[in-house]
Request: fold
Amino acid sequence: MIVVGGEALVDLVPSPGTRDPSGPLLPRWGGGPYNVAVALGRLGVPARFLSRMSTDPFGTAMLERLHRSGVDTSLVQRGPEPSTLAVVGLEPSGSARYGFYTNGTADRLVQDPGPLPADTQAVALGTLSLVLEPGASVYEAVLRRESEAGRLISLDPNIRPDLIADPDAYRRRFREWLPSVGLLKVSDEDAAWLGMTHPDEWLRAGVSAVVITRGADGLTAATPAGRVEVPGAPTVVVDTIGAGDTAHAALLARLYAHGALNRNRLADLDLQAWRDVLSFAALAAARTCARPGAEPPTAGELSASAPLKTPN
Reply:
């Protein structure tokens, strides 16, 4: 079981065929961790979501989508606070920019669930949930405690600079997390913002493997076995909303298929296996880019190119 912790929010996106900010905006369910949980469920990987979600109509609809995707919601807390909103603007390339409305929203008020269930193999965290207090400290406590308990921690910081009041303080805090992190997934833009000059620096800081997503150019993994790169999968880009989250989920799904959801096995994975993992993630992200909003593919949609296997 993979526990995904973090925010669920409402993306307000331009209606199909327009990028006019004055035009109609349509609600789409999102949030980096929420997208990862949905993508894992659609890929047939056991996943459980940890968050606080509103009892408003948006929160209820997002919870129902988790159920339809096969995600366990036993760790979801509910509250009367409103759902977080993200107003999405699209660049001509299809890349997304965001404006967030987060004050007093439900996902910021998550409470520490205590030690996670015994069937937890890995914990995936990141995005706004590790920035906005008081919830950020709760998720940080989960990160440290579950790492100490031997669970693989997968981290995608998914940087939103406009929401980080003190960038230097956040960078220091981020570096303090690294000894507890097994898999670090970052975009090339995130790496630059964080001051990453070489992925080997983060391996030396204690991370077992680093995966850098490079948009249409593909993915790179830096591991104790060496470095491997794969190109992006061909696609027609409608928008890039949720593509990085889908890649994160697909990395975890393929590592699950390889039986590598722990730090020792992750560190021992050879470059051929990493090429398979990265190629699967590239394909899954491309499928998401080909349709509007964060709509990750199912295992069936990817099976012809990269069928998932059940680990022994």
Notes: The chain has a mean pLDDT of 90.
